[in-house]
What does this fold into?
Amino acid sequence: MGAGMSYGLAPLPPKLLEEKGATASVAVGCAPPVAGETLYTWADRAVAHLAATHDENPKLTLGRSLDLLTEPRWLGLGATERSAPRHRVVARFGREGLWEQIWSFNWDCVQESALENVGISRDGVDSRLPWPTGSRTFITAHECPQAAEENMVQIIKPHGCVRALIEAERERTAGNDPRALQLAARFLITQTELTALNTNGDPTQVFIFATLCSRMSAHPLVTVGWSASENYLLDHIENNVRPQLAMRALGPDELSIIDVAFHTGHPRLAQCYNKTAAQAHVPVGATGLTTDDLFLWVQTLYGLERLRLAVAARPADVQAIAAMEATLAAPPDNRHFSIEWVDNFLPVWVRLCWRCGLVPFYDAQNQLLPVEEFNLERRDEHVPWNLYGCARPDLIAAAILAAALHRNGSSAAWDFGSFPGGLYRGSDSLLVVPLPAWRTGADNELRGLQPLINALQRSGAQPVERLGVLPLMADETPPGAGEVAVLRESLAHRIGTAAFAQSDEIVVMNLAGL
It folds into this structure.
């Protein structure tokens, strides 16, 4: 990941210098930026001045002068409750176990914040859950031993990290100056160090670049918003990775360069994979196909594939989902219901089914996973769709719903984003809430509907004049009248509004009526 991945969320280097250069120069005590100077050349002067004036930790002082330690945008703490779609999809794919490693050349923690939003915590790994639950960011040699941990998403940040600067400040305050210096030293901002980094230097560098070689040699590479301008890194890839790549057959998707342009460093990277610009470059822009659009499209294809596999024994549903996939052979130019449905409805539905205890999963010790003990209520908390070792009635029921929407030809009438986990039709202000109906004797408190309830209570929400419940089954068996009555009562209780306090005010829907 390069600076383009954080476009619009954290300032790019030119903008940061424009915003902070003058005040930071005053704080540091050096001359302000001059015309034509970059952030990196100015940082060279600033660090040299701080060193000459015997500052005890020049990099930390410089980061503080640029407000990197205090401004929420660097930590990914924006005004909205959700991460940007591109970061959200990357985080979900981390939960799915699809990334071998994430490399970020950005100082910001926008992606780390997105990982938190899907349930991947910085605090540690929960070994009870059968999917990745923790993340580790590697900044210095101190973190290297953590690379052996399982159930973890690894984030390598060769140019340092704002959180490392914040930690350095804490260590300095606590009197641990050596550790503070070690952490702050990894904040690479000067032109000198970025153009002549020694890949065989200190233990941190040895670890980072040995890891780079092993991962790039064995796994496909996806770059996003990275201009590949670091010649030291390209040299290292050419000398150490390219010979390894030449020893094996490379697939068509071995290298994907997602960027607004095919920058100067990209041809060198593509040559290592024996790819042309046409084969490697995935063009995106601020208009047309954006990076957000691209990642949402990829997520949709992945989600539909998982659903199609879940209903392999139901030919009619397989055919319908395959038809949906066929309409997405390329990123669509306009709104496509599948993209919104997979992004907004499917994750909430899966969480709901798990929260209700309707997807039993047994761990390696043959113990039933105590799902009720885990927090699954965050807006984008993600339960993987590719989890093996258990039946997936949640995905089967979701696939049946998706196939029905496609066959009915009514999908364009429904809004899947306004009320997460629900289907909203603005023409008659109808909100339909699909609920699992195959085992209502479970602890069916419907806590997984909290994002939908939050949306209902939010000021400015779409008006809901009618509320419907859609009982979904994971097989051909129709839901019984008793199960439907339980679902209506449970929904009325959970929604908790005067308009729908009585269950008989909630209409019962079926797939054909959507």
